[in-house]
């Protein structure tokens, strides 16, 4: 269980924390459509600068699709989107219930390294999970790297969130499943928790799930 003494704000990562994801599904999907070297250009911990640019909005969705088509010219945009979105799985109802309960006591925010293609795709998952975009009701603000023009773990990304939402880092908890992002938050004195494989946020706040 977390020590929430003095905490007034909680910033959640999305993929791997709230939304279940599996990077291997996207890697396998791309290999199946002919992108044999996908493992060399993308992973959770390290990725080609093309993906970094996609996540900061510097690269448009169609430019990304054309990048993949340069590898396999016969691919259609729909093939690429389907493979790219394969990593996005489900959002368990227990996590939604938890977030609704936490909202009664804390200011909640979402901070995700993501891109326009994924935002559109997980928007449908969110709606199917609760018949509407439940994030609008739960989070005070949703920060997406492709809209911010900056990404985790860079300090300017965290600093922007703190400033735009008037957050005191000493009163703020950040939860992410990537250690480099947790370390980036800690540099700004944000209390950060690394959610390790197999952990679920509902286990961090057991008294709020009942």
Strand content: 5-15%
- CATH topology tier name of the largest domain: Rossmann fold
Number of helices: 13
Mean pLDDT: 92
Radius of gyration: 17 Å
Report the major sheet.
5 strands, parallel
Which CATH architecture of the largest domain is right? 3-Layer(aba) Sandwich
Multimeric organization: single chain
Low-confidence stretches: none
Distance between the termini: 14 Å
What's the level 1 CATH class of the largest domain?
Alpha Beta
Secondary-structure blueprint:
Elements: E1 9-12, H1 23-32, H2 38-41, H3 49-55, H4 61-71, H5 77-84, H6 93-103, E2 107-112, H7 116-130, H8 134-138, E3 141-144, H9 145-148, H10 155-164, E4 172-176, H11 179-186, E5 191-194, H12 201-204, H13 206-209
Parallel strand pairs: 1-2, 1-4, 2-3, 4-5
Helix pairs in contact: 1-5
Short description:
This protein is an alpha/beta fold and 210 residues long.
Characterise the protein shown here.
- The chain is an alpha/beta fold and 210 residues long.
- The chain folds into two domains: 9-21 and 90-209, Rossmann fold, CATH 3.40.50; 23-87, Putative phosphatase, domain 2 (DNA polymerase, domain 1).
- It has 13 helices and five strands.
- The chain has helices at 23-32, 38-41, 49-55, 61-71, 77-84, 93-103, 116-130, 134-138, 145-148, 155-164, 179-186, 201-204, 206-209; strands spanning 9-12, 107-112, 141-144, 172-176, 191-194.
- Helix 11 (179-186) links the parallel strand 4 (172-176) and strand 5.
- Helix 1 runs antiparallel to helix 5 (77-84).
């Amino acid at each position: 269980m977390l020590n929430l003494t003095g905490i007034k704000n909680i910033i959640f990562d999305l993929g791997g924390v709230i939304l279940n994801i599996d990077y291997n599904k996207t890697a396998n999907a791309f290999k199946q459509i002919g992108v044999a070297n996908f493992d060399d250009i993308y992973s959770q911990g390290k990725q080609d600068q093309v993906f970094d640019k996609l996540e900061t909005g510097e690269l448009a969705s169609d430019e990304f699709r054309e990048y993949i088509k340069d590898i396999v010219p016969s691919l259609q945009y729909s093939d690429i989107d389907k493979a790219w979105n394969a990593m996005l799985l489900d959002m368990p109802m227990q996590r939604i219930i938890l977030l609704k309960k936490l909202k009664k006591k804390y200011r909640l925010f979402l901070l995700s390294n993501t891109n326009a293609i994924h935002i559109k795709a997980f928007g449908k998952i969110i709606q199917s999970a609760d018949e509407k975009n439940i994030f609008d009701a739960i989070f005070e603000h949703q920060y997406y790297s492709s809209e911010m023009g900056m990404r985790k773990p860079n300090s300017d990304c965290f600093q922007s969130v703190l400033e735009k939402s008037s957050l005191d880092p000493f009163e703020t908890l950040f939860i992410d499943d990537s250690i480099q992002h947790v370390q980036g938050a800690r540099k700004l004195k944000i209390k950060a928790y690394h959610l390790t494989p197999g952990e679920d946020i509902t286990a961090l706040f057991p008294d709020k799930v009942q």
